[in-house]
Design goal:
heterodimer, A: alpha+beta, BirA Bifunctional Protein, domain 2, 2 domains, seven-stranded mixed sheet, two-stranded antiparallel ribbon, 12 helices, 38% helix, B: Phenylalanyl-tRNA Synthetase, Chain B, domain 1, Phenylalanyl-tRNA Synthetase, Chain B, domain 3, Phenylalanyl-tRNA Synthetase, Chain B, domain 1, five-stranded mixed sheet, five-stranded antiparallel sheet, 31% helix, elongated
Chain lengths: 344, 621
């Protein structure tokens, strides 16, 4: 018996496609796959076939069978889900898709990426410097002698290990400025550094976490001036906060820069008109300044030839400012409540 | 430190056509940040630690003289000096100073026939505007002058000073004094104190006066004094005593050495007027050091280089003069009230450019060559790992660097001054905290997958701790092999070359965890992928199921299978059911089409080899 597989297939498929409801599907099923269906009749009488022919037939029948079963399953699925109840066709399509389970990157990671992206456009090289640090790099070399009241601003954690005669105590660095000295001591100039690292301060309240991230920019080259700091800030603020945000520098005081500035941007909430979240339309972004000649010297750089600027700001802070996410307690960021993390 | 300065009080000093808001924004942009304007008059000003001189009406008025003209407003100095009062030699307090470095300047006068009473309304009102409570005319004068002139001062009842003797010295450990607030304080060594002729401590210098020499209703003779103390000593003492007074905060930022006597004269004159008293002693002014004027060589080019534009010499000179600097030739003399703050030409540049206006400088990107740095970090790889895990359903966690002693691991470094016991040690492993997070979020969902990529701290003798970056993973509701598969897939994604050993730990409660040294992992990733040429021939895939024992590993079996014949192209794990392991084997001959006869023969050899090496047999059907 000769079997024209392709013809059978195409005929069955045609019939199947025209079967619009479950009744006609059942009919089709019994015609092809039922006890007295086409498939069975094909193998009902094989006594007059040779062994080779039987093998050939077996292969063909198996192929046909899986084709028919697969086609039937598909039609059954579509008929039972849509075609059976035509009136719900639109509703069905309105149901949410079945999403694969995707996790969540932490907000801090997302912010670090955004910041790194902006600075890479200006040729800044990203680095990471120690969180557990010698007092020398965190304070002393930054023009902050031991007795200086400026140290009060930093609520510093100390690690319980013996002091080094030269480098002093071991601390959790309270800022990323330790990276200024470490970067300069590499001895490669010019410098365009972006140090994004973990820091620690002895503070925990709705606005402070004892472990937090800062990003520190440092540019050292010949003839670097305040205008360059302003140019980089403009680029950063335009790209990070958008074209409507303006900024200003205010005089400030930091031991490791001279002159020193506080950088303000227009309040994202009132747009600079002034509201209860800002100071007369401005919000503080963070500190910046021209690298103090003593700091350049501590980094092995000649202040007669080179100059530079630096700034160091909180990653979490700029993120909150950019997104206007009003997270009422910043410590949620490190509590790892999945209901919190899943929102980002 | 924030200070309250009424604009109406400033106008005693500066006559201007600027309003309070104009003055506030001029100060914010060019000088001190005005945080708030209260009742349209009182400026709440943030003064940076280097500008102790700004903590007074006088100091802010001086700034106004420079910043108002920068904004196009008029500014004229209208304050007149109080004429020097007359002295008498009637009272002769005896002052001895054990060490002049403690008190670089000590000045005092005695005022007799004082009537202690209420201050006039104008004074009380001004004090209340700056947040001070009026007490009596004597105390009010000291506070009023502190706010106006920036010099903390103190008034003693002269007759309560034993023997009218004052001996300024360092405290001995364990000495006691009861201060004006009624608190009995036990002193450490080295605090500056004044002992009277009866051996009693009557003043905790620069911090607070002693209760035993306090003014009362019967007081008729007052000793008024104004000092300059060693700022470091005051700061250390006030911190160690936990007593941070207004006076201490000012002294430790440094007060104007040259303004001491005129402040005393102003206060004494005011006190005499308000209390009906008269000066009954000579002016006592003991200086331990000679004040020498400080001067800096002016460098106009340097100022321009810092600014980035040319600022005309005339502007530079005029600005410095308006701030009280005196220019003689190429030398700039620093005003006494800026003595500690101005040291180098960069400091002068800041003065000039801030008045010029930072907003008036152009914004320019730095030119020059870009830095060339060899890439020696794993940032890209870290991002890749994080993204991959995220798309596999993992939540990224961030934790504090410090944990409790229980979670810190063996040999963890201790923090000397932790915030609390939960943050007392630097962690040596990420896993304990991740397990805690799984537990805390147990109600979230049946399956939870989390990770953290962060440093841990391994102590190193005589050096900073070693901070390897670790990748910590923890899951709940996941099959062991599924978890293992995720880690293996991650390694493939990262391009890890070669074998990495990692250990999956089965934790109580059905959680699984794994911690991998990411730095080490990064060292063995590479782009060196091997290309195997495509063949035009098809492979044949077959499954075999064998019965395994617990004494072999999967790798042992794969090695046997692979080494049986070069035409075994791939061996992979398909399934295990009880002790029946199903392998999927792909056969490929790169030189010709492989046939089922050939694969049959290879398969027989595989089974033979498995049997002879490990006694592993084909699963009977």
């Amino acid at each position: 018996m000769k079997l024209d597989i392709e013809a059978t297939k195409s005929e069955a498929k045609k019939l199947l496609d025209s079967a619009g409801d479950s009744g006609s599907l059942a009919e089709w099923h019994s015609k092809y796959l039922g006890k007295k269906g086409v498939l069975r009749t094909l193998t009902a009488d094989v006594s007059d076939l040779t062994v080779e022919e039987k093998k050939e037939l077996g292969r063909n029948v198996n192929e046909l069978k899986s084709f028919l079963e697969e086609a039937y399953r598909e039609s059954l699925n579509s008929v039972t889900s849509i075609k059976k109840d035509k009136p719900l066709e639109n509703f069905y399509k309105s149901l949410p898709g079945k999403k694969p389970e995707i996790g969540h990157l932490h907000l801090i990671t997302q912010a670090i990426r955004e910041i790194s992206d902006v600075f890479s456009g200006l040729g800044f090289v990203r680095v990471r410097y120690p969180e557990i640090e010698w007092d020398y790099y965190a304070f002393e070399a930054l023009n902050m002698p031991k007795t200086h009241p400026a140290r009060d601003e930093w609520e510093t954690f100390f690690v319980d290990v013996p002091e080094d005669p030269k480098l002093g105590k071991v601390v959790i660095t309270p800022h990323t400025s330790n990276g200024q000295i470490r970067e300069m001591l590499k001895g490669e100039l010019p410098i365009r550094m972006l140090n994004i690292s973990r820091c620690g301060r002895r503070q925990s309240d709705i606005n402070h976490v004892p472990t937090f991230y800062q990003f520190e920019g440092l540019v050292v080259d010949k003839n670097i001036s305040i205008t360059h700091l302003k140019g980089v800030l403009e680029y950063l603020i335009y790209n990070f906060f958008g074209k409507d945000t303006k900024f200003r520098l205010r005089p400030y005081d930091f031991r490791f820069t001279e002159p020193s500035f506080e950088v303000d941007v227009t309040c994202g909430i009132c747009g600079g008109k002034g509201c209860r979240f800002c100071k007369e339309g401005w919000v503080e972004l963070g500190g910046a300044g021209m690298v103090h000649p003593d700091v350049l010297k501590a980094g092995g750089v000649d202040p007669e030839v080179y100059s530079g600027f630096a700034f160091g700001w909180g990653v979490e802070r700029v993120l909150m400012m950019r997104t206007n996410l009003k997270i009422d307690d910043i410590r949620y960021l490190l509590e790892n409540n999945l209901k919190f993390l899943e929102q980002f | 430190m924030n200070v309250l300065i009424p604009f109406s009080w400033l106008k005693d000093y500066v006559k201007t056509n600027a309003g309070v808001r104009d003055a506030a924004s001029a100060l914010s942009e060019h000088s001190f940040s005005v945080e708030k304007i209260i009742d349209d008059d009182v400026l709440e000003i943030e003064v940076t630690p280097n500008r102790g001189d700004g903590l007074s009406v006088l100091g802010v008025a001086r700034e106004l003289m420079a910043v108002l003209p920068a904004k196009g407003f008029s500014a004229e100095w209208v304050k007149k000096q109080i004429p020097v009062t007359k002295y008498s030699g009637k009272d002769k307090p005896k002052v001895t100073i054990s060490d002049n470095s403690l008190v670089p300047r000590f000045s005092a006068v005695v005022i007799d026939r004082v009537k202690v009473k209420e201050s006039p309304a104008e004074i009380k009102e001004r004090l209340s505007k700056v947040g001070l409570r009026a007490i009596n005319n004597v105390v009010d004068v000291t506070n009023y002058c502190m706010v106006e002139l920036g010099q903390p001062m103190h008034a003693f009842d002269y007759d309560k000073i034993g023997g009218h003797e004052m001996n300024v010295r360092e405290s001995k450990k364990g000495e006691e004094i009861t201060t004006l607030d009624g608190v009995r304080r036990t002193l450490p060594e080295g605090v500056i104190v004044i002992e009277d002729g009866d051996g009693r401590l009557i003043d905790l210098c620069g911090i607070m006066g002693g209760l035993n020499s306090e003014l009362d209703g019967k007081t008729t003779k007052v000793l008024l004094f104004v000092q300059v103390y060693d700022p470091v000593r005051i700061r250390r003492s006030s911190m160690s005593l936990g007593h941070r007074t207004d006076a201490a905060l000012r002294f430790e930022k440094g007060v104007d050495f040259e303004n001491v006597v005129s402040s005393l004269q102003t206060a004494a004159g005011m006190l005499a007027k308000l209390s009906g008293g008269e000066i009954s002693s000579e002016l006592i002014d003991i200086t331990g050091t000679v004040y020498t004027e400080k001067h800096i060589k002016i460098d106009y080019d340097k100022i321009n280089k810092i600014a980035g534009i040319e600022i005309k010499k005339d502007f530079v000179n005029a600005t410095l003069s308006s701030l009280g600097f005196v220019i003689k030739g190429t030398d700039v003399y620093v005003p006494s009230w800026r003595y500690d703050d101005i040291n180098i030409v960069e400091d002068l540049a800041e003065e000039v450019v801030r008045i010029y206006g930072y907003q008036n400088l152009p914004n320019e990107l730095p030119g020059g060559t870009l830095p060339h740095r060899a890439k020696n970090n794993n940032f890209a790889l870290e991002d890749k790992a994080k993204d991959f895990l995220k798309y596999l359903g993992f939540f990224e966690c961030y934790n504090y660097s410090a944990v409790s002693s229980e979670l810190s691991g063996h040999g963890a470094l201790k923090i000397k001054n932790p915030l609390n016991a939960d943050l007392a040690y630097l962690r040596t492993s990420l896993t304990p905290k991740l397990l805690e997070i799984l537990h805390k979020n147990r109600g979230y969902s049946e399956t939870v997958k989390i990770f953290e990529l962060a440093p841990v701290f391994l102590s190193k003798k005589g050096d900073l701790p070693n901070p390897p970056f670790m990748l910590g993973l923890a899951v709940r509701g996941l099959d062991f092999l599924v978890f293992k598969g995720i880690i293996e897939a991650l390694f493939e994604e990262l391009g890890v070359v070669g074998e990495v050993s990692f250990e999956i730990v089965e934790q109580p409660g059905g959680a699984l965890s794994c911690e991998i040294n990411f730095d080490e992992l990064a060292n063995i990733t590479g782009e060196a992928r091997v290309y195997s040429p495509l063949t035009g021939f098809n492979s044949i895939k077959e499954d075999i199921t064998v019965v395994v024992g617990d004494s072999v590993t999967f790798t042992d079996i794969v090695d046997v299978v692979t080494n049986t014949d070069t035409r075994v192209d791939k061996v992979s794990f398909k399934d295990i059911y009880g002790d029946a392991l199903t392998l999927s084997i792909e056969f490929l001959d790169r030189s010709k089409q492989i046939t089922s006869e050939e694969t049959k023969s290879i398969r027989e050899w595989i089974i033979k080899n498995l049997d002879s090496k490990y006694g592993i047999k084909l699963k009977s059907q």
